[in-house]
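Re: the pair you flagged

First of the two:
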Amino acid sequence: MSELRIAITTGEPAGIGPEVSLRAAVDSGLPCDLLGDAELLESTARSLRLSWPLAAPTRVVHEPLAAPARPGVLDARNAPYVLRLLDRALQGWRGGLYSAMVTAPVQKSVINDAGIAFRGHTEYLAAATGARQVVMMLVGGGLRVALATTHLPLAAVPKAITRELLDSCLDVLQHDLVERFGIAVPRIAVIGLNPHAGEGGYLGREEIETIGPAVIAARQRGIEASGPWPADTIFVARNAMRADVILAMYHDQGLATLKFASFGKGVNVTLGMPLVRTSADHGTALDLAGKAQADAGSMKEALALAADLAQRSAPAEAARRERHGGS
């Protein structure tokens, strides 16, 4: 790859994705391709009082909408458009054009309403790249918090927490924190599933039967893992600051604290894939769409982190791309 260039998929056209994508790209000065409908992006840029056409190094890669987009009004006819943006970014990465991908928020419900089975960016990109195990990690407020499970009903979480899953998550965290974040010996704090990490088995046995053994096995593989920690004490500053990443068992267990500490500035990073992918830590914010009031802070942080990770891991990325059939 001759130079850094980042693909920004502008997300749900009725949401704030086009706005925060434009603001982040223009303000960053980084070489970016904004993937989306050119007419929509032009009208959004003019509402933000940005000059049009956009100046280098920002470029627009046109992908036409199926139906006109109205701010705040979802339209299932545009669901395939949203996924085409992801596909074009993946195509560009495979061809060596893009060093990384930054994704603006999508509306999962309207994609499913269109008859397309879709759980989220993470799962879609994992399937498209053939990744065996991906890990969702959010960065912000001085914390890194990874998730063993992501978008599952709470009742389904205990059965999903298996030794195989935890072994894979810990291996992915170890690899990517070394290779992409440049942390020589990552310290991984693993949270228990139950209150008080099971209270010695009185409040649940997952810590004894699954989580604790996974931590021991990881240490035997040379991973600096600790736990299982009680969820209500690991985020105490003196504990959290001793870890390079905290591995939570389910979505809200880990992300409630992180979003309290960093909402609007946090970044979602997908680990375990052969490409760098980051995203904003918020949703489509349909109520703010079209009002030129959306805070682009998280999208800016996502773009900056993507550039940093891509540059740091460029040699390894080139090797991975070669193995996945890219140029």
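Second of the two:
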Amino acid sequence: MKYYSTNGKAPMASLEKAVVKGLAEDRGLYMPEEIYKLPKAFFDNIASMSFQDIAYNVASNFFGDDVDLDALQDIVFDTLQFDCPVVEVEKNIYSLELFHGPTLAFKDVGARFMARLLQYFINSSGKSGDTVNVLVATSGDTGSAVANGFLGVDGIHVYVLYPKGKVSPIQECQFTTLGKNITAVEVDGVFDDCQRLVKSAFMDDELNVKMRLTSANSINVARFLPQAFYYFNAYARIKSLTPHLLTLAPEIVMCVPSGNFGNICSALFGHQMGLPISRFIAANNANDVFFNYLKTGIYEPKASVQTLANAMDVGDPSNFARIINLYSQNGALSPEETHAAITSLISGATYSDEQIAQTMRQCYKDTGYVLDPHGACGYRALKEQLREGEIGVFCETAHPAKFKEKVDAILGADVAIPDRLAAFMRGEKQSVALSCEFADFKSFLLSR
């Protein structure tokens, strides 16, 4: 499989180059040249398959041309040492719980897979003595998932850039207390500044001569593509939980809380592979750039605003470029045709902090289910937009305890902190403070 750039001005890349480089030479995002359909037999048997077996079939479709299949199976099975269950919240509305991994967030899947795939390429290239430096910007959960996914992996050093004072204390503990091959960089700015620093580093010739750089943000194909695994698993679990309903052929709707749009982008790639989801809902907080695009056909990035759902505080989502490329058929369709294709499949929603908090309270009162602020956006959008005869699944992207102060205050409850989360909180913070100027970040990297 070859990978091309969304900007169309970079040479085609192998999977290994796409993973190791992260970003194409023209600053575009890598896209697979082909998206293969999965066979009908796979979907006929999916309800009886394990999560790991489902994921291996999907991974083989994406990566089987470029990774030894036995090694790929080991990577998938080692990645998925936890479940992503589907839980009924109320009639016809289900939560896809993505917080059962090591850092209690959906990004554990992509981060763990990428760490193992990158190590596979390092080992197979014969350059195991040459350190690969992973740069990752985080607005919350990415940093902890990537840091823990790569912790202790030989030949890889991770730099986690995060906005000062704009991630939850528990999130911060998960990537600033690790040490070893993890360096936390506290940036005096917002998430978009962190993302800009990462992208600028990839384009800097001097840095790339002196260091092997890659990214573990959802701009990296090895980070976002594996997230499709749990959408196939969700379909399988719905099929096994509701066989009586599926005989009536109801439509299944997937609602994804969205920030940098890597998560919903992976779901859309799954849809292209044949995943029988009828439509998607992208749920935003007050950062409503994509919502406005759906309404107007005009994409106008803007500065992000800080909200209760901080991991979605993104004003210029990177993966928008992939969505446009996918539905424009790599530029073959006009902007108007592309917009029509996207809106025929995806609707949107945007919620204020007050609406998010109200949703959390109402869901807890009505069902006893505890939502985190991000899941609350997904639950509310699904509840408001679900139609007669549809089954809806929303992503609960992180454990509520990761936002304990906010959730406790909103619900008047005392959310229990899982043991593995409490262990992070006992660690000592280790971070490097930097301005949001690229010159300072470049100087820091060159001094390492």
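The longest strand covers residues 156-163.

-B.
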